[in-house]
Write a structure and sequence with these properties.
The protein is mainly alpha-helical. It has twelve helices and two strands. The chain has three domains: 216 residues, no CATH class; 39 residues, no CATH class; 35 residues. The protein has a two-stranded antiparallel sheet with strand order 1-2. α1 runs antiparallel to α3, α4 runs antiparallel to α9 and α7 packs antiparallel against α8.
Length: 308
């Protein structure tokens, strides 16, 4: 079981190098993940499917064995994730409809190594430059994959893509070490041209092919089941939430009486610290919390001494 979980976690991260960098996983076997971008071509989709089908087969074998509660919980997490993966592969296929996938990938690919000090700055900017060099290929994949898009996703993608352009052309260009400026400038030039071309694609051809951002009842129900893993339908959980809300409001009304709930909340709000008293109030609250913890610790120690 432990080997399955390890292979699943690290193998999944290796399939998304940008996520791997953010998670602190920098090298997978011989792959330097921090220099790579996620791949959205058909050959890589086939590789991903084979990997997850392999994990699925191992899960099926493990289900036949005796597992403890913790192992069963881990297995359920893996199974639900696999359900989401195959739902995405076979049905939802967001990469064909959501352009924000590509522009957010670019932003995370560059911003994460820029901000996280997991390695010396020179090393991280080498990785940033390597990723910049791969942006034109990613853009071409996005243009080939996207068949339509909801208006709102298209608009957000264009806005976020402008942010990527500014990140590359301003923040990163200003921060790159002197010795690496020439290599960075060369990679940035082609990356910026590709990103601007992508914005033109979004605003032009793709904007003419609109679609609905909603999954629809059946797809939503399937995704809902894998994500929340409650064993309940969306309708059942909504009904329970509405009932809980009604009960909570009734309890609030009882606690607030004879005032109304808004009146009681207004009185509570007046007890909050002002900007002028905030620091002093925070120190007072810290002292109270520290004293409480010390009393509890002393009480537990005393009980332990008595029972010993």
């Amino acid at each position: 079981m432990e080997q399955l979980v390890s292979d699943f976690v690290y193998g999944s991260l290796a399939l998304s190098p940008v996520s791997a960098t953010g998670a602190g996983y920098h090298k997978h076997k011989e792959l330097a993940l921090d220099e790579m971008l996620d791949d959205y071509n058909s050959a890589n989709f086939d590789s991903q499917r084979k990997f997850y089908e392999g994990i699925q087969g191992r899960v099926a074998e493990l289900e036949k064995s005796e597992l403890n509660a913790e192992q069963r919980a881990d297995l359920d997490i893996v199974k639900n994730y696999l359900g989401l993966v195959f739902l995405e592969f076979d049905t939802i296929q967001s990469y064909k409809h959501n352009p924000t996938i590509y522009v957010e990938l670019v932003g995370n690919a560059l911003f994460t190594p820029y901000m996280l000090n997991y390695a010396p700055q020179e090393q991280r900017f080498t990785q940033i430059t390597r990723r910049l060099e791969k942006i034109p290929a990613l853009v071409e994949q996005g243009k080939a994959n996207l068949v339509d898009s909801p208006d709102v996703w298209n608009r957000v993608a264009r806005e976020e893509n402008q942010g990527n352009v500014e990140l590359i052309d301003k923040a990163l260009r200003d921060a790159v070490p002197e010795a690496q400026k020439a290599d960075y400038a060369k990679a940035a030039t082609t990356a910026l041209a590709a990103l601007k071309d992508f914005s033109a694609f979004l605003e032009g051809p793709l904007a003419k092919k609109t679609s609905d951002w909603r999954l629809g009842k059946d797809k939503y129900a399937k995704k809902f089941g894998y994500v929340l893993a409650t064993g309940k339908t969306p309708e059942q959980l909504l009904s329970e939430a509405e009932a809980d809300l009604k009960t909570t409001r009734e309890e609030m009304a009882k606690l607030a009486a004879p005032k109304t709930v808004p009146q009681a909340l207004d009185e509570i709000a007046k007890q909050h610290a002002t900007p002028e008293t905030y620091l002093a109030k925070a120190k007072e609250t810290l002292a109270q919390a520290t004293a409480f913890v010390r009393r509890r610790a002393w009480s537990r120690s005393l009980r332990g001494a008595i029972w010993r």
